[in-house]
Amino acid sequence: MNLGNLQAPTGNPGEAFCPHALAASAKGYLAVVWFPFGYASSGQVGTESYVMTYTINADGTLTAVANSQVKTASSSANTVVASFDPTGSFVAVAGDGGVQTFAMNANGTLAAVGSPQSAGANFQDVAWDNSNHVFAASNSQLYVFNSGTGVLTPVSGSPYAGGPELTVFPLR
Question: Which of 20, 48, 93, 148 has its CA 20 to 30 A from that of 80?
């Protein structure tokens, strides 16, 4: 993934910035899920993954939003995916730490909403529909959540059986 001159988050000396997933908000922000790795090798520094936001400027350039970086519940050792709701007010981040949501504040910073759901499912994809449902696919099941205010609650009957061919497409 090449993001050009994307301003990296400030980290610890010896760490590099490795973007892992992107999600664009209807409010003009880009959420980037990333994990740190060592400069001397392509090896990871730790197992954490983070999400932070960037303002999408009129000319298409990106400006990091100060103090927007938050740690996710998922590790960087597995796939971590992200998707904004249709209004751009909430971003869902899914990985081996479960599906969790973050509210987008007026200044572009993120705040965790509720606790992660279905930790350990190793999610591969996540998307919202226009009725505040979050759909998250693992390699064997499809999870469906209600999310009126960003707080996730499983839909009755969820998760549903599936296979590695499951993909979640955002509704337009």
Answer: 148
Is residue 169 domain-resident?
Answer: no
How far is it, in rounded angstroms, from Cα 109 to Cα 89? 11
Overall number of domains in the chain = 1
How confident is residue 100, by pLDDT bands cut at 50, 70 and 90? very high
Q: How far apart are CA 70 and CA 52, in angstroms?
A: 6
Residue 85 lies in a domain: yes
pLDDT for 1 beyond 70:
no
d(CA 86, CA 6): 25
3-class DSSP string for 134-170: EEEECCCEEEEEECCCCCCEECCCCCEECCCCCCCCC
CATH number reported for the structural domain that contains residue 112 in this entry: 2.130.10.10
Domain assignment present for residue 5? The answer is no
Domain of residue 56, residue span: 15-161
